[in-house]
């Protein structure tokens, strides 16, 4: 079984959108997909085989005040309103609806990871849990603390999947993948560290101490897993890592159209490595 992991990264994940469009152009269809944060949205569109759809969200819709804006914060108490991309735009009566029939019948087995706000642990979901016009898994996996309120479903609260399992290679291998492509949103040599916003979580997320603990440990977990993948000889022919050589100043909430385009094009151009990897 061939799998792909998209680790997300907010606006930086437009790099992966380029990779996935290359795959659709070349009819490269993975058996298994695992999305983290923005990667869940990217892979949902890929699973629905809608080439170019992700690009529109990063280059057009993200600039709308209904998506990310101070207005949202003043009106709703959160800067990023995930209902806009994953409901208003994506429902069948929306401006850019997800092709649900193709999505649910696709041979790509899509899974996403979210973080349980109470326990700080990863929770994995399968695409079968998303019904037509109810694309809640993308919201659960992409809810960034501080930027958004926790996503609530059936009494459970969720935050961004990248907190608990930033590079879920173990899950992919446990699920039966023999080869895995991992799409990062930062260069391979990038080492994560504790950010100012992470330190703010102690105040903003005091109701969720286990999530705060996971946030404080996220950088070490990311760095450790990536180092393991890069140095473990057993994974040498099993895993292909695709990563940008430069982020061009794009960060999680960037709205820099020229730089976003450059990241997308870089992702598209590197897609050819997948063909070589799969043919070896």
Structure description:
With 280 residues, the chain is an alpha/beta fold. The protein has helices at residues 14-25, 38-47, 53-59, 70-76, 83-88, 100-105, 136-142, 161-164, 169-174, 196-204, 209-231, 257-270, 272-279, and strands spanning 2-6, 32-36, 109-116, 122-126, 151-153, 156-159, 179-183, 239-242. Strands 1, 2, 3, 4, 5, 6, 7 and 8 form an 8-stranded mixed β-sheet that branches. β5 and β6 (156-159) form a beta hairpin. α1 (14-25) runs parallel beside α2 (38-47), α2 (38-47) packs antiparallel against α7 (136-142) and α10 runs antiparallel to α11 (209-231). The radius of gyration is 17 Å and the shape is globular. The two termini are 15 Å apart.
SSE topology:
Blueprint: E1 2-6, H1 14-25, E2 32-36, H2 38-47, H3 53-59, H4 70-76, H5 83-88, H6 100-105, E3 109-116, E4 122-126, H7 136-142, E5 151-153, E6 156-159, H8 161-164, H9 169-174, E7 179-183, H10 196-204, H11 209-231, E8 239-242, H12 257-270, H13 272-279
Parallel strand pairs: 1-2, 1-7, 2-3, 7-8
Antiparallel strand pairs: 3-4, 3-6, 5-6
Helix pairs in contact: 1-2, 1-12, 2-7, 10-11
């Amino acid at each position: 079984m061939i799998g792909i992991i998209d680790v997300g990264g907010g606006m930086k994940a437009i790099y992966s959108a380029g990779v996935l469009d290359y795959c659709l152009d070349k009819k490269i269809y993975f058996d298994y997909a695992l999305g983290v944060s923005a990667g869940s949205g990217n892979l949902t569109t890929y699973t629905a085989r809608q080439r170019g759809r992700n690009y529109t969200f990063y280059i057009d819709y993200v600039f709308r005040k209904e998506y990310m804006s101070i207005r949202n914060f003043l009106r709703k108490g959160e800067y990023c309103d995930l209902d806009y991309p994953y409901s208003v735009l994506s429902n069948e009566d929306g401006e850019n609806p997800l092709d649900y029939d193709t999505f649910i019948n696709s041979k790509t087995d899509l899974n996403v990871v979210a973080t349980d706000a109470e326990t700080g642990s990863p929770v994995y979901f399968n695409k079968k849990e998303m019904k037509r016009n109810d694309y809640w898994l993308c919201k659960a996996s992409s809810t960034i603390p501080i930027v958004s309120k926790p996503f609530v479903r059936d009494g459970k609260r969720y935050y961004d999947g990248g907190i608990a399992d930033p590079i879920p290679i173990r899950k992919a291998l446990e699920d039966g993948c023999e080869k895995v492509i991992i799409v990062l949103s930062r260069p391979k040599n990038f080492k994560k560290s504790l950010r100012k916003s992470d330190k703010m979580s102690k105040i903003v997320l005091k109701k969720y101490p286990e999530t705060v603990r996971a946030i404080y440990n996220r950088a070490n977990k990311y760095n450790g897993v990536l180092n393991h993948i890069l140095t473990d000889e057993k994974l040498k022919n099993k895993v292909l890592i695709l990563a940008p050589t430069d982020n061009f100043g794009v960060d999680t909430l960037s709205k820099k159209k020229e730089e976003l385009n450059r990241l997308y094009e870089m992702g598209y151009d590197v897609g050819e490595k997948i063909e070589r990897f799969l043919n070896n």
